[in-house]
User: Fold these one by one.
Assistant:
Number 1:
Amino acid sequence: MRIAHLSDLHYGTRTLEEADRCLAHAVDRIGALGVDAAVLSGDATDHALALHSPAAARLLTQLRRLADHCPVLVLQGTYAHEPPGALDVLRTLGGRHPIHVADRIQQLALTQAGHWTASAAWCFDVLPADAAAVFCCVPTVNKATVAAAVGAAQAGAELGDQLATLLAGFAPSHRAARARGLPTIGVSHGTVFGCLSEHGVPTAGFDHEFTTGALFAAEAQAFLLGHIHRHQAWRQHDACGTQCIAYAGSIGRFHHGEEGDKGFLLWQVEAHRADCRLVPTPARLTVDIVFAGRPDLDALRLAAAREAVAGASVRVRWTIADEERCAVDRAAMLRILAGATDVQLEGRIVPLARARAPGIAQLPSLADKVQAWARTVQVDPDPLLACLAELAASPPDDTAARALALPPAALRPDWAELPPEALAAAV
Ligand SMILES: [Mn+2]
């Protein structure tokens, strides 16, 4: 059985161009390659879409085209991206082949006639006689529901434990399917402990949904995952034959700094073996140019030539001190990068750091604090302490009158140059 596995389409206002160019290409390729089914493993949308938004219309158009090629299974993804009910409209979309929306834990049979049959409960009591393949679907678990049942502190770890129990519970039906020579396929959306993010960072923590061990323990030949936007796969050979778990990754490149190819997976799944390969989509090229200090325009020109920025999305980042912030010529940078599809300029300004006197806040009197400060900045504290004593002893009006009676230059040297009316305003 050949299955196309797409994930993380993230249709939204901002992402529409990238998502639609890549998905349109993928649907064309799937039509040309010929598959028995297509699986979308979550995050079809980036946020709640209004029905009149161009993103909604384009997504429905592409999924309808997909359903004209093969049966389609759509899994509920992250609720922040796909609010509950967002996928309901797909049930009415029609097409030459059926679209099934899996928004609860369930098993599915893809029948020999190419229809989806869903289990009434979380799994089949008896596999349908006309099944051509068996799918188990584990949509995103709402952590809030788990937290409500076991408490917020336990929710993270409990989620993993409960999912591991559930996955192991699918194993007997997968063994039965394998005995009948049927391919077995798991579909889910979540984070595998230790997987690599699209930025190349390993994820490690105790509140991730799965371990590879828990997924393999479901004894499905193939496990199709969504959520992480980087394609990656794990394989195991044992009594069940060859098992493979894989993230398809996102269909397009939605953020700067995402490594690797984007695309969809073409799976070959049989009763005792499974494998997949990435079919790339024309995801946008991104180029990152980073300066440790002030952006150097000559270096930027060289980098622009070397990285071939024409047609790419370019991000320039720099870090400068506060006093240099006016020395950055954004217009000149934009001129150098004129060939890019879009340019993101991100300057980080490091605020001036002033020496502080450690422990000063704990000192009991203001005089002690002045002395501690004077020691830190290495100045003579005596004139300041004299002023302080005078301030403490005199009424405020007298202090102000004495200050105003001083020649301006004694207050601040630059005031000596001011005309009298400006001086009055300054004082
Ligand atoms: Mn996603």
Note: The CA atoms of residues 134 and 242 lie 17 Å apart.
Number 2:
Amino acid sequence: MWQVVGHEKAVGLLQRSLKGEKLSHAYLFVGPRHVGKMTLAINLAQALNCTGEEKPCGGCPQCLRIAARKHADVHVVELDGRTEIGIDQIREMQHFASLKPFEGRHRVFIIDRAERLSHEASNCLLKTLEEPPQNVKLVLLAANERLLLPTVLSRCQRLELRPLPIAMVEEALIHRWRVVPERARILARLSSGCLGWAVSATEDEQLLHHRNERLASLIRLASGGMDERFAYAAQLANQFSQDRESVNGVLSLWLVWWHDLMLVKGGSGDFTANVDQEETLLSEAKRYSLTQIRGFMQSLRQAMAQLEQNANPRLVLEVLMFSIPKGKEG
Ligand SMILES: [Zn+2]
């Protein structure tokens, strides 16, 4: 049974390909962080090596070893604390790819956060994508495919994983992870449909704490002076050069916050994502007009799009700071 929650379309396509033995030699799973890309990739590796009846069975020695990340033929290439995936990691991968499977039928290489492949690493990877050894499958995972080389993109079959419905996340948290319903409701809403985030938050109290701290500083910033805002823009721009996705995460968090303000303002407060921030949402919503809220959401979206298109981050973020609307004194 496929362990991944939701993503029926992607699972369906993989199942059909497995049955007809028409699997692509390389896949690209695209979707936001924590949406389920790694779980699906692990499931695919299991399905390829499973010795059970219904593949992936989840219970045979192959499936179990893969789930425990102990299988000799399933490798995850990842950042490991570095800012880029280097050519040395891809060369090492190619060495293993040239060997016959050791304990299973297929060697599977999962490249996590593939948008962080260095330019040399991407070019080196092309060789494997062009002439994949027999019984080797590659699965690239990326949140932002536009950062991948077009030549890499064109050699992979692309599967998009979208955020799950909130109710599905909530149900999975309650029934699979045994989270108490009230907490499941909050985490599901905060997850924006990315179940992996919610599951991590059930195991790590700090995650929710950090999120709320970050949100509090963004709310403070909206009533702060220009000096403070520019200092923050500089800090974010700096962070962007190290880790673009984390900056994208900050801006997404902010966007969800302003979207919630819009909902509260429009009388749809029951549908807010930040369910644990009801009071602050109510008081903040009073400070802005609907036009101001919509305007700033537009600015946020624009900034995110410009960053994705490689505009100068410092400039984009400073312009964004200028467009924070002036609220009434709270
Ligand atoms: Zn199995």
Note: The chain has two domains: 8-160, 204-322.
Number 3:
Amino acid sequence: MLKGKLVLLRPVQRTDAGYFLKWFNDPEVTQYLGMYLPMTEMAEQKYIEELGASKAATDAPFVVEAIDGDKSKPIGSIGLHRINPKDHSATLGIAIGDKQYWSKGYGTEAARLIIKYGFEQVNLHRISSSAWSFNERSLRLHLKVGFREEGRRREAVYINGAYHDEVMFGLLREEWEKLK
Ligand SMILES: CC(C)(COP(=O)(O)OP(=O)(O)OC[C@H]1O[C@@H](n2cnc3c(N)ncnc32)[C@H](O)[C@@H]1OP(=O)(O)O)[C@@H](O)C(=O)NCCC(=O)NCCS
């Protein structure tokens, strides 16, 4: 478990399927994630089961819980994906699925915790990420935690009736160490 002041990150459990179903069937959330088909209970269960098998070596997924005194409650998910042991690289994914918790610093702290984990525990050299160009909160979060914009895949995604750029980000370990 990774613990900060606002959030803790803990491993995924089978009982999280209900949260994932709620968050990843909410169009206000999924517009930022490139998901556009209904998320079925079967697909969620399969995803969770695969975390215990083939994906176990390349994915480090966590549930984000908001800390409230002695208690905490699930508000989203975050993970390092496609962990590559040759290049020492991985890709960040983050979604605060409970909209009540948007723009209150929870995502930023969760990202900082998983980045620290990626560099200090997984021994990564580089973390990649991306966000749609209209996702102001995510663009801001990436820059705040130290990512640099590396380019744009122009009009790469079609969402809500229009094409948008995908903004590509990268964070190297040495850059992150200077920020600490
Ligand atoms: C993107 C996401 C992870 C950000 O987490 P969060 O907890 O909401 O964001 P934070 O409060 O930590 O930081 C957001 C920053 O964006 C800023 N912001 C919020 N709305 C903004 C807007 N409309 N324009 C510009 N900046 C904005 C905030 O002020 C804050 O920056 P600051 O600390 O410098 O003031 C979260 O909103 C989320 O999961 N959204 C839905 C799914 C998603 O977009 N996932 C990411 C896919 S790349």
Note: The chain has a mean pLDDT of 96.
Number 4:
Amino acid sequence: MYEAALKRPFFILAPMDDVTDTVFRRVVRSCAAPDLFFTEFVNADGLQSPGRIKLLKKLRFTAKEQPLIVQIWGKNPDNFFKTAQQIADGTFAHELGLPGDVNFAGVDLNMGCPQKSEVRNGTCAALMNNRSLAAQLIQATQEGLAGRLPVSVKTRLGFDKKDLSWPEFLLSQNINMLTIHGRTKIQMSKVPADWEAIGHIRELRDRIAPSTLIIGNGDVKNKQHGLQLAKAYKLDGIMVGRGILHDPFAFASKSSWGLYTKKQKLELYQKHVKLFNETWKREERPVYTLNKFCKIYVNGFDEAKELREQMMKMKTIEALLDSIEKELQKLV
Ligand SMILES: Cc1cc2nc3c(=O)[nH]c(=O)nc-3n(C[C@H](O)[C@H](O)[C@H](O)COP(=O)(O)O)c2cc1C
């Protein structure tokens, strides 16, 4: 079980849909590795449908991104059971072409995503208002895993207001880990994360579920910042999401990103694009999906904005790689 091997507090790269794919996870690892990775969220109902093959890209990983937790969402307990079973017995890892000794380290259930389509469909954050289904989904996952891998939940402080009865309910479900994003569903990302509330949930954990790990999440910039929060609120771990988009070395004890030259930044982008090119077929992830990463690397030097705009117009990977290479040649 991953948790036994991790020092406290440990650091997690947050799941971010269409961002933290196998490629970006490897780039982050090459800069400064977190202690634990998550996949993007993947729909368990879709995984048990004819759409499975298309969704496998969300699960793709290599032995370098470990330990790695799969995050699932959906609404059908049977599909959670089957998905959990197939994660634990290595079926998915096998379908992804991984060697027999490489597998996921755990299963996380998304009960916090506030997106309209998911909530309208009764999934993710909507489960806060449907606790009997939330309990069924957790139980089905636990039964599918049969003790072979840990189960965790990632959620928010409440639906329309902070509601401690929700984490209290989750902590009574015998889960291994609970990640709290310190905002309610309706707050989306519009207000600062409430770390006092995360601290209260940790106190609740101490009283009712001492063996469940508590992870805090929301607005953490980097490891130093996370260490302060973990100490102040006595947390087992810290999850960092958008912070990594401002500093790929966010998990380093001391980040060197501020000292990176234009050349070093462009070389890191080149590495990202090359890995992307080796990993994805065009129909799986088109070239424009790289645009959201461009701002990480093509930033903080003279005329970065103009260069970024130019690179974001590239229609093929080859043209993008060519444009990065030409820019690097100018710096020789
Ligand atoms: C682009 C994007 C995609 C996200 N996708 C997921 C997801 O798939 N699963 C999930 O639990 N949270 C998802 N989140 C939420 C993050 O994991 C995290 O909880 C949130 O960004 C707050 O942490 P931060 O302030 O460190 O970014 C996503 C956030 C962003 C910005």
Note: The chain has two domains: 2-245, 260-330.
